[in-house]
Amino acid sequence: GDSVTQMQGQVTLSEDDFLFINCTYSTTWYPTLFWYVQYPGEGPQLLLKVTTANNKGISRGFEATYDKGTTSFHLQKASVQESDSAVYYCVLECSGTYQRFGTGTKLQVVP
Amino acid sequence: EAAVTQSPRNKVTVTGGNVTLSCRQTNSHNYMYWYRQDTGHGLRLIHYSYGAGNLQIGDVPDGYKATRTTQEDFFLLLELASPSQTSLYFCASSDAANSDYTFGSGTRLLVI
Fold first, then answer.
1. pLDDT mean across residues, chain A
2. At B45, phi and psi to the nearest 5?
3. Sign of CA dihedral A20, A26, A28, A34
């Protein structure tokens, strides 16, 4: 079945560091992929959505790139701030029915 | 403002107890979802619905029932709660499967 994998459980960076979070997926079709962000005490919220039509999305300084060749979907940001500390989820649209979440990457940015 | 509201915010029950978690959305969305969030597992889908009266099974449905009474209201039922169901539960709504999800603030359930 459709699956999504995030290997990085936790990432600790200093302010102004470069962020790169990788995600891989497995499916028999070309799904829409998402990155959601969750701040403490809140539900997840959409950060980026990327379809097969555009392959890349940009929002709030974050950039997501969809690589169908390697079935990977990564999130990057050039310079992180302490306010970016949160949990980031890679999410796969499953066969037009619902969205399947990865296990999440907790980002801690220290000043 | 469009929103998803969950109640209660916190709930404690005993093993074998009966629990109902409520979710109401004012987004006029057709799709609604129940997820549970656990450390090391992320969010896992329990049940979802395409509209009033419709119910679909998610990835971890065992021990849970759900009911969608109206377009706005989606309920998650635990009829014989077990400690393994201690978790943070999120409800969400969307226009379609590949649309943005709007999440509620969550219900924290403790089964003792």
1. 93
2. -80, 130
3. negative
The nearest CA of chain A is from the CA of B112 a distance in Å of 23
- The DSSP letter of residue B101 is P
CA–CA min distance A89, chain B (Å) = 8
Q: Which residues contact A73 (CB under 8 A, 6 or more apart)?
A: A23, A24, A25, A33, A35, A50, A64, A65, A66, A67, A90
Q: What is the residue type of B26? A: T
pLDDT greater than 90 at residue A85: yes
Minimal-distance CA residue of chain A relative to B6: A43
What confidence tens digit (pLDDT) does each residue in B21-55 have? 999 999 999 999 999 999 989 999 999 999 999 99
What per-residue confidence (pLDDT) applies to A38? 97
How many CB atoms are closer than 10 A to CB B17? 15
**B87: closest CA of chain A, how far (Å):** 14
A110, A103, A82, A87: which is closest to A6 by C-alpha? A103
C-alpha count within 13 angstroms, C-beta hemisphere, residue A42:
12
What DSSP state is assigned to residue A60? T
Q: What contacts A28, CB < 8 A, 6 or more positions away?
A: A2
Residue contact B59–A32, C-beta within 8 A: no
Q: How far apart are CA A85 and CA A39, in angstroms?
A: 8
Q: What is the pLDDT of residue B1?
A: 63
Q: Please give the Cα distance from A18 to B85 (Å, whole number).
A: 38
Residue of A nearest to B33 (CA): A98
Type of residue found at A12:
T
